[in-house]
UniProtKB/TrEMBL annotation:
<dbReference type="InterPro" id="IPR015422">
    <property type="entry name" value="PyrdxlP-dep_Trfase_small"/>
</dbReference>
<dbReference type="GO" id="GO:0003962">
    <property type="term" value="F:cystathionine gamma-synthase activity"/>
</dbReference>
<dbReference type="GO" id="GO:0004123">
    <property type="term" value="F:cystathionine gamma-lyase activity"/>
</dbReference>
<dbReference type="InterPro" id="IPR054542">
    <property type="entry name" value="Cys_met_metab_PP"/>
</dbReference>
<dbReference type="GO" id="GO:0019343">
    <property type="term" value="P:cysteine biosynthetic process via cystathionine"/>
</dbReference>
<dbReference type="GO" id="GO:0030170">
    <property type="term" value="F:pyridoxal phosphate binding"/>
</dbReference>
<comment type="similarity">
    <text>Belongs to the trans-sulfuration enzymes family.</text>
</comment>
<dbReference type="GO" id="GO:0019346">
    <property type="term" value="P:transsulfuration"/>
</dbReference>
<keyword id="KW-0663">Pyridoxal phosphate</keyword>
<protein>
    <recommendedName>
        <fullName>Cystathionine beta-lyase</fullName>
        <ecNumber>4.4.1.13</ecNumber>
    </recommendedName>
</protein>
<dbReference type="InterPro" id="IPR000277">
    <property type="entry name" value="Cys/Met-Metab_PyrdxlP-dep_enz"/>
</dbReference>
<feature type="modified residue" description="N6-(pyridoxal phosphate)lysine">
    <location>
        <position position="195"/>
    </location>
</feature>
<dbReference type="InterPro" id="IPR015424">
    <property type="entry name" value="PyrdxlP-dep_Trfase"/>
</dbReference>
<dbReference type="Pfam" id="PF01053">
    <property type="entry name" value="Cys_Met_Meta_PP"/>
</dbReference>
<comment type="function">
    <text>The enzymatic degradation of amino acids in cheese is believed to generate aroma compounds and therefore to be essential for flavor development. Cystathionine beta-lyase (CBL) can convert cystathionine to homocysteine but is also able to catalyze an alpha, gamma elimination. With methionine as a substrate, it produces volatile sulfur compounds which are important for flavor formation in Gouda cheese.</text>
</comment>
<comment type="pathway">
    <text>Amino-acid biosynthesis; L-methionine biosynthesis via de novo pathway; L-homocysteine from L-cystathionine: step 1/1.</text>
</comment>
<dbReference type="InterPro" id="IPR015421">
    <property type="entry name" value="PyrdxlP-dep_Trfase_major"/>
</dbReference>
Length: 379
């Protein structure tokens, strides 16, 4: 099945008890155990919940994996995967990962004795060079946030696997509609479900999917033991959103490509970071491994132009963190999403103070262009 059909029919979307076409919300924390010490399929919602299980099976399907786990946030999903590491282990991460991921690695994992090397993962030889005896996993994010760098997942996986390391991909920006890392060699795919999967800026969620039973058992153990599970209500909302994932992403892709081309032609814009522009260094790899280029991009305004004035004077693009919702958003990573990265590291990774990130929504394209046109003209 194509993903356009999978979003409607993939996974266990029907309620086995009643045949309800929409899985009901099992809003219960616990279950009657009819026999003391007997084998009960459902005992306690942190471990088992039918609404969450239904979502998890859809997510596993969308990512073309076998085992899916839903968490209370994207960071909870990332933390669960990092839970595979122990003191003395080393990991390689992309140098421009999401600020929250960097904060987790730098401020929480490093003091526990888990070391890391941040490299430009678009350069496979840099991954190779950073490899150590004790490297356990290679953590990729592609397209990256906020510079939209694209890592060749197949090439990076080949290098990592040749050395016996695991490959993890954060698929938040692409979503499984645009990219399926497990098909490209990754061992684990994870994402913030808050973004394109949720799609309406009203849920915080995350997920992990793998094809490996061994990894799945470990993730399940962490999910159960740490307890950052997704609630039944939110599991329901995500399933509702997933039904329109393909439609929404198609429109995000179309709108963003047109906005990227439009912005590239404006005098006030110095650079557009979008892998769908043929002039972009990331274009060829993106075309090879992505179905569409996604709804995210960043821009540099010409030096001297007032970034603050620009982002505050748009009417449709709302100044807000997050991304992937139906409404267009705009933000300044240095002050907002990436403020948790020390400035010198942020600048070294190419994230300038004035960089502006856009999450292009599914509004009418002419209205979006007009909003940006008036904002730029006001400068
Ligand atoms: C690429 C990426 N990964 C992970 C996260 C964390 O997700 P959440 O905010 O759902 O915890 C974000 C949040 O913005 C993100 O952009």
């Amino acid at each position: 099945m194509d993903i356009e059909t999978q979003v409607i029919h993939g996974g266990n979307q029907e309620d086995p008890l009643t045949g309800a076409v929409v899985p009901p919300i099992y809003q219960t924390s616990t279950y009657h155990q009819y026999e003391l010490g007997g084998e009960a399929a459902y005992e306690y919602t942190r471990g088992e919940n039918p609404t969450r299980f239904a979502l998890e099976s859809v997510l596993a399907n969308l990512e073309n994996g076998q085992y899916g786990y839903a968490f209370s946030s994207g960071m909870a999903a990332i933390s669960a995967v990092m839970g595979l590491l122990k003191a003395g282990d080393h990991l390689i991460i992309a140098s421009d990962v999401y600020g929250g991921t960097f904060r987790l690695v730098h401020q929480i994992l490093a003091p526990l004795g888990i070391t890391y090397t941040a490299v430009d993962t678009a350069d496979t030889s840099a991954i190779q060079a950073a490899m150590q005896e004790n490297t356990k996993l290679v953590y990729l994010e592609t397209p990256s946030n906020p510079l939209m760098h694209v890592t060749d997942i197949r090439a990076a996986s080949d290098v990592a696997h040749a050395a016996g390391k695991l490959v993890v991909v954060d698929n938040t920006f692409a979503s499984p509609y645009n990219q399926r890392p497990l098909e490209l060699g990754a061992d684990i795919v994870l994402a913030s479900g808050t973004k394109y999967i949720g799609g309406h800026s009203d849920v915080i969620a995350g997920y992990v999917v793998t094809r490996s039973k061994e990894l799945a058992d470990q993730i399940k153990l962490i999910q159960l033991s740490v307890g950052a599970v997704l609630s039944p209500q939110e599991s329901f909302l995500l399933q509702r959103s997933i039904k329109t994932l393909a439609l929404r992403l198609e429109r995000h892709n179309d709108n963003a490509l047109e906005i990227a081309k439009f912005l590239a032609e404006q005098d006030q814009v110095a650079h557009v970071y979008y892998p769908g522009l043929p002039g972009s260094a990331d274009y060829e790899v993106a075309r090879k491994q992505m179905r569409g280029f996604g709804g995210m991009m960043s821009i540099d305004l010409q030096p001297g132009l007032d970034t603050k004035y620009f982002v505050e004077h748009l009417k449709l693009f709302t100044l807000a963190e997050s991304l992937g919702g139906v409404e267009s958003l705009i933000e300044v990573p240095a002050v907002m999403t990436h403020a948790s990265i020390p400035r010198e590291i942020r600048l070294a990774n190419g994230i300038k103070d004035e960089l502006v990130r856009l999450s292009v929504g599914i509004e009418n394209i002419e209205d979006l262009k007009e909003d940006l046109r008036q904002g730029l003209a006001a400068l």
